[in-house]
Each structure stands twice: as C-alpha cells, then as structure tokens.
Amino acid sequence: MTGNLLEIRDLHKRYGEVEVLKGVDCTMAQGDVIAIIGSSGSGKTTMLRCINMLEEFQGGSIRIDGEEIGYETAGGTRRRKKEKEIARQRAMTGMAFQQFNLFPHMSAAENVMLGLVKVKKMARDEARSVAEKWLDRVGLAERRDRFPGQLSGGQQQRVAIARAIAMNPKLMLFDEVTSALDPELVNEVLQVIKDLARDGMSMLLVTHEMRFAYEVSSRVIFMNQGRIGEEGNPREMFHKPQTERLAEFLKTSTFN
C-alpha cells in the first residue's frame, strides 16, 4: 500500500490499430482535485472511462485504494475479472457525464434513489432520506418531485451529480459536465463542484473550462496525443507552461 487513492501505471488503450492511451502514469491522493485538460482526441475521456471500467484497456494497471481494477494476473496471464466483481469495483467511483442520463419517467428524487435501492439494497425510506439530503446539497430541495422534463439542463445535471455522489463513491469522475449546457447554466453546475471540492471530495475532472480548472484544482494534467504532456500546480502551468504544446493550447483556450 502506498497511501494513494488512485494509481495508474503504464495505461494503454487501443481501438483496433489506433492507440488512444500510450502509457499513462498518474497518482492521486485522498482529497485531491485534478483537472484534466487537452485537445479533443487527446485521451482525456478515455482515461476516465478506463478508471470506471466502461472501457477495457489492453495494458497497464489501475488501482483504487490499493485494489487492482478490472483485471487480475495469474501465472503470467492477464484476465478480466468476473462481471459481479467489476460491478462492485465500479461502485468505488461515481461518474457524471456530458449527458445527464436521467430516467424521464422518474422524479429527481426517484432518479437519485434508484441506485441506492437496486445496488446498495437500501430500504426506500432510507434511500429517500439520502436522496433528499443530496438534492438539498445541490440546491434542488424544492424540485425533488419534478420530472427531468420539468427541469432546466443545469438542474438535470445537478440531479445527475447528486445521484452519483449519493452512492458514496471513493472517487468522483466528471466528464465535461458543462459541455451540453447553455452558457448561462454552466456556473450553477460549476458552483456545485467547487463546493464539493471545498468539502474535500476526491475528484478527477475532464473540462474545457480553463478558468474553472485554474480555480478549483490542486493539480492539472495536460493530455497530449494519448500521453501526459505536462502536469503540476495550476498557477505554474497556466502562467509558465514548460512545453510549447501546452503554451499553444492555452492560447486557443478560454482562459484569460
């Protein structure tokens, strides 16, 4: 045990002949907030999806809290773990996506309750209490009985975040959670994430919101063509990039 919450070693991911992740190494301590930035196609989202085992990967290892995720090696042979074991491991992380993926026929509270009842086997009364707590936490206490179609995009995304966090994950993964939102709705979602960061939640965020990455993260990772091109303190990286590629990327970004 190293004490790291997350350890990624020599991670390789291919789609056919195309190698998307080319040997990524990353460690993360409890309470870290790491923003992952980079151009489209650089491997940011793929890395998150590998951590959550939504994607298989062909080489390397991912450990959460010291536990190897997704695969095991016995007698020199690497094999995928059983689906029941992967489902248990997947619950160690919570993930919020670009799309909200809410069930339209369920209220906000019912959407948050679903995993608590089905996966955690929680009694409905207890699940309702947990759902209401987290909906209140993301500023939606008064809209808990509304259906997704009655909520704005920003409100739907906050329900999706509450749903993920209610499962009590060790690590939260955010994949461009504001990219599908109208500009005026972005800040309400970013404020929720800032509050969670302030509370000490461990988070990995893929984002194109450079100002947000600068303000909220304890560390920034710049992905470039399937590798980590640069990483470090956000102030140093944004004001004194060490590589020409990061300097070019920042010039074309919304950070100013």
Descriptive keywords:
256 residues; alpha/beta; 4-stranded antiparallel sheet; 9 helices
How far is the N terminus from the C terminus?
A: 41 Å
Enumerate the spans where pLDDT stays under 50 for 5 or more consecutive residues.
Answer: none
* Strand order in the sheet with the most strands: 8-9-10-3-11-12
What is the tally of beta strands? 12
Portion in helices: 25-40%
The value of Rg in angstroms is 19 Å
Order of helices and strands: EEEHEEEEHEHHHEHEHEEHH
Q: Residue-averaged pLDDT, rounded?
A: 92
List the total number of helices. 9
| Class of secondary structure makeup | alpha/beta
Task: Describe the fold and architecture.
- This protein is α/β, with parallel strands linked by helices and 256 residues long.
- The chain is built from 9 helices and 12 strands.
- The strands form 3 sheets. The protein has a 6-stranded mixed beta sheet, sandwiched between helices. A 4-stranded antiparallel beta sheet has the order 2-1-4-5, covered by helices on one side.
- The longest helix is centred in the last third of the chain and has 16 residues, at 183-198.
- It starts with 5 loop residues before the first strand and ends with a helix.
Topology:
Layout: E1 6-15, E2 18-28, E3 33-38, H1 44-51, E4 59-64, E5 67-68, E6 71-74, E7 77-80, H2 83-90, E8 93-96, H3 108-118, H4 124-137, H5 153-166, E9 171-175, H6 183-198, E10 203-206, H7 210-216, E11 219-224, E12 227-232, H8 234-239, H9 244-252
Parallel strand pairs: 3-10, 3-11, 8-9, 9-10
Antiparallel strand pairs: 1-2, 1-4, 4-5, 6-7, 11-12
Helix pairs in contact: 3-4, 3-5, 4-5, 5-6
